[in-house]
Write a structure and sequence with these properties.
- This protein is α/β, with parallel strands linked by helices.
- The protein has a single domain, classed as Rossmann fold (3-Layer(aba) Sandwich), CATH 3.40.50.300.
- It is 36% helix and 27% strand.
- It contains 10 helices and 10 strands.
- It has helices at 47-55, 77-82, 100-107, 115-125, 127-131, 142-154, 172-187, 199-205, 223-227, 230-236, and strands at residues 7-18, 21-32, 36-40, 62-67, 70-71, 85-88, 160-164, 191-196, 208-213, 216-222.
- The strands form 2 sheets. A 6-stranded mixed sheet has the order 6-7-8-3-9-10, sandwiched between helices. Strands 2-1-4-5 form a 4-stranded antiparallel sheet, with helices on one face.
- The protein is globular.
- The structure holds adenosine-5'-triphosphate (ATP).
- Keywords: Amino-acid transport, ATP-binding, Nucleotide-binding, Transport.
Length: 239
C-alpha cells in the first residue's frame, strides 16, 4: 500500500531562464502520493515553466527535480514519460488535424503494447471521446479538447499527471466537469499537479497549494487555509 505522505515529486531551488528573462528563481515544492497540489498565480508567473521543466522540456540553470526518489534533473521528456510522469497541456495543445484516436495513440507511442486496454480505460472515463474517436480533434468543443488532452496524458500510464490550466477558456459548467474528472482520477490513485488561474476552483479541489508570483513561491499551505487567507482572498478572489 502506498504511503500518502511519501513524496512522489520534489523540486528543489529550481531556476530557469529564457535568454535574459529569469522565469523561475529558486522554486521549491513537493507533491506527495495521493495528493492534488495546485500551483496558482497570475499570467506569466511561471506555472507552465515549472511543469515543463519537471517534464524535461527546459533545462534548469540550477536546482533539482526528484521523481519517486530518483534524480531526473535534465532527463529528456521521453525518459520522464517512460518513468511515469506526464503533462496534459491546455486543450489547444492537442493535434487538431489528427483524429481523436490518433491523438490518444500518440500518448502511448512509447509503449504500444497494451494500447487497446488503455483505450478502453480512457473511453470508459471519457465516453464522449469514444463517440468521437474518428473525428478530427480540431472539430471538438473546448471542453472535449481539454478531456482529450487529459485522456492522452493517461495513455502513457503515468503515476503523476501535471495538468496545465485545464479551465482556460471553458464555460463554468464545463470547468466543473473537468475538475470532477481530476478529483476522480486522484481518487483512483493518480497524484495531480494542477496549474490554474482559476484560484477558487483550484483551491476547492486541491489538498495543498503553492502561490507563484514572478517566478518565486510567495505562499504555500493547505488549500483550505489559503482559501481563508485574507491576502490570497484580496489578491485572487476579489474579496
Ligand atoms: P500563463 O498562465 O500566462 O501561461 P505562466 O504562469 O504559465 O503564465 P510561463 O508561461 O511559465 O508563465 O512564463 C513565465 C515567464 O517566462 C513569462 O514572463 C513568459 O513571458 C516567459 N517565457 C515563457 N516561455 C518563454 C519562451 N519560450 N521564451 C521566452 N520567454 C518565455
Amino acid at each position: 500500500m502506498e504511503q500518502r505522505n511519501e513524496p512522489i515529486l520534489s523540486v528543489r531551488d529550481l531556476s530557469v531562464s529564457y535568454g535574459s528573462i529569469k522565469a523561475l528563481q529558486g522554486v521549491s515544492l513537493e507533491l506527495r502520493r495521493g495528493e492534488i497540489v495546485a500551483l496558482i498565480g497570475p499570467n506569466g508567473a511561471g506555472k507552465t515553466t515549472v511543469m515543463e521543466t519537471v517534464l524535461g522540456v527546459n533545462t534548469p540553470d540550477t536546482g533539482s527535480v526528484v521523481f519517486e526518489g530518483r534524480d531526473c534533473t535534465g532527463l529528456p521528456v521521453d525518459k520522464n514519460v517512460r518513468n511515469g510522469m506526464t503533462l496534459a497541456p491546455e486543450g489547444r495543445g492537442v493535434f487538431a488535424s489528427m483524429s481523436v484516436l490518433d491523438n490518444l495513440l500518440l500518448g502511448a507511442h512509447h509503449e504500444t503494447k497494451g494500447a487497446d486496454k488503455k483505450l478502453g480505460f480512457v473511453f470508459d472515463a471519457f465516453p464522449v471521446l469514444g463517440e468521437r474517436k474518428n473525428q478530427n480533434a480540431g472539430t471538438l468543443s473546448g471542453g472535449e479538447r481539454q478531456m482529450l488532452s487529459i485522456a492522452r496524458a493517461l495513455m502513457s500510464t503515468p503515476r503523476i499527471i501535471m495538468v496545465d490550466e485545464p479551465s482556460m477558456g471553458l464555460a463554468p459548467m464545463v470547468v466543473n466537469t473537468i475538475f470532477k474528472i481530476l478529483v476522480n482520477l486522484n481518487k483512483e490513485g493518480y497524484a495531480i499537479f494542477l496549474a490554474e488561474q482559476n484560484v477558487y476552483k483550484a483551491l476547492k479541489c486541491a489538498h495543498r497549494a503553492y502561490v507563484l508570483e514572478a517566478g518565486r513561491v510567495v505562499a504555500q499551505g493547505r488549500a483550505e487555509d489559503l482559501l481563508n487567507d485574507p491576502a490570497i482572498r484580496e489578491a485572487y478572489l476579489g474579496a
